[in-house]
Amino acid sequence: MTFVLVAQGRNTKNVVAPDLNTKSAATLKRSLLDELLKKSREELVDLTRSALEQKNFATDPEFKAESKYDTRALEASYLASAEAKRVEELKLEIQILEEVDLNVSSRMGEICIGALVELSYSERKMLYFLIPTAGGTLLKIKDDAVVVVSVFSPIGDAMLGLKSGESFEVETPKETRSYEILSFH
Fold first, then answer.
1. Do 20 and 116 form a contact (C-beta atoms < 8 A)?
2. Which of 173, 148, 159 is nearest to 119 (CA)?
């Protein structure tokens, strides 16, 4: 299965949900989670390298301030500190993703973390992957797209514990949106 990262935090108007059976849904969930882990690990490697470069720049004696207005090293140290913090956050995100149980929804009979949920909104079917992190990512699989939703987002929080056939509403700044759960895996 080939994945293409389409967008992050974009509008999902043209997302159409594919027909899924339990076996294909399990395979798709595993592939989605693996792709998110791969993306996070790649970002961790890049960010770790960048943080080290910024730290080296900030502590390089050649860039010692030449006047009270020369703040290059200070600015580099701020950037290095922020990048180091993001490295730690990414490590935690990766750990959380590695611990996601993709079968809990099947065992519980309701939407839980790790569920692949097909929703209907405004006569459109959309497929959502509910996990604790990486919300807002849109992954494209062949001609189908899956929106990754965090359980901490309004839509993710609202669908937790629900079952097929149930509905829920999410308030947005412009309107109140009504969703119907068509299926979940």
1. yes
2. 159
- pLDDT, one tens digit per residue, over 104-117 is 888 899 999 999 99
State the CB neighbour count (10 A cutoff) for residue 39.
Answer: 16
State in Å, rounded, how far the first CA of the chain is from the last one: 19
What's the angle, vertex CA 55, arms to CA 73 and CA 94, rounded to 5? 140
Residue pointed to by tokens 């990766």:
94
pTM of the model: 0.76
Query: Could you say which architecture CATH assigns to the domain 3-34+101-184?
Result: Roll (3.10)
Torsion angles phi and psi, residue 70, rounded to 5: -85, 105
Enumerate the domain spans of the chain.
Answer: 3-34+101-184, 44-98
